[in-house]
Amino acid sequence: MGFDKAVRRCGRSAPLERVALALGVRNSILVVAPRLRETACRMMPRSLVLVNEVPQRGMAHSLRVALRFIPRNEAVGVLLGDMPAMNDATIARTELLLCDGVDVAFPRNAGGVPGHPVLFAPSTRAKLEALPDGDTLRLARDDPSFVRAEWTCPDASAFLDLDYPAQWEAFANA
User: Fold this and answer.
1) pLDDT confidence of 174, banded at 50, 70, 90?
2) N or C: which end of the chain has fewer CB within 10 A?
3) Taking the CB of residue 16, how many other CB atoms lie within 10 A of it?
4) Are 79 and 116 in contact (CB under 8 A)?
5) Which of helix, strand or coil describes residue 95?
6) b vs e for 75-86, b when ≥16 Cβ sit within 10 Å of the residue's Cβ?
7) What pLDDT is recorded for position 94?
8) 72, burial (CB in 10 Å: exposed 0-12, middle 13-18, buried 19+)
9) What average pLDDT does this structure show over 57-73?
10) Which helix (H) or strand (E) holds 90?
């Protein structure tokens, strides 16, 4: 989009600030490019903010940066910083599914399109660490050896990702 969309104001707040509100008091780690560290620390003061020195390696590399700071026996959740419609209810509903042998939990829309957050049980750790560079999280989410739990999210909270100028403008003017 030509700018750092996660930290730019869109209406009253930046998408990253909205994600911080949705996370509430949950423990969180935020991985950002070096130039965004200071701003991200202000926007998500409850989070451990880490730097991905090579952001061109993609989301999987950012996840590996964060995994070094997460105990191996804890679940891992992935939530994008530019999802301004995310809310506590969507996160909580997904968290409820990560139990009883479930390896990965996430929302889908009525058409079957997966959304965020994507939550992984500790049993998935080795595969998360082995993801190839790029935006390859879906390889773990869709791994046929994992037991998945999904739910149908009826609103935009799990799906709205501001990738195009028209989406940005529509959200800012809503």
Assistant:
1) low
2) C
3) 26
4) yes
5) helix
6) bbbbbbbbbbbb
7) 98
8) exposed
9) 96
10) helix 88-97
In the structure encoding, which two tokens stand for residue 2, read together?
Answer: 């030509």
pTM: 0.93
103 alpha carbon, distance to own chain's centre: 17
Closest CA to 30 of 1, 2, 75, 70: 70
Tell me the C-alpha distance between 117 and 70, whole Å.
Answer: 17
Alpha-carbon distance 72 to 124, whole Å? 10
Q: Which two tokens stand for residue 15?
A: 């998408």
| Distance spanning both ends of the chain, measured CA to CA | 19
pLDDT at 155: 93
Note the pLDDT tens digit of each residue in 136-162: 899 999 999 999 999 999 999 999 887
